[in-house]
Amino acid sequence: MKLRWVALATAMLMAxxxxxxxxxxxxxxxxxxxxxxxxxxxxxxxxxxxIAQLESSSAVGFGTQGQTDxxxxxxxxxxxxxxxxxxxxxxxxxxxxxxxxxxxxxxxxSHVGGGLGIGIPTTQRRAAGVAIWVPNPTPPAx
Length: 142
Prior knowledge:
By secondary structure, the protein is of the alpha+beta class.
């Protein structure tokens, strides 16, 4: 029984590591900044300069708001690393996970276990945006 919990915990930890980001440089990177200073925009502000096109994904989960927040936070972190103080959010969506989680039976030494296998459908949330530098950003509304 203990072996099953170890296998399940290992599978969940491996799945959590599946978050990723890709980037395509469009301009010159600047000195990195604090991710808390990066603002999200729906349209490019006047005078903004494009730095990179970014796409990020959350860890594997069940399509929650937390996954969406994590994907957008990853965009902000990666934009900040490039010196961008803004991200034009192009879209957020979901995709089926490349990793399926399941709980089932197996064998250990001379002991053979049997049981019911359960497949758990999982998804990843994806966010795409353009990292930008804005010369005079307006503070976010509170």
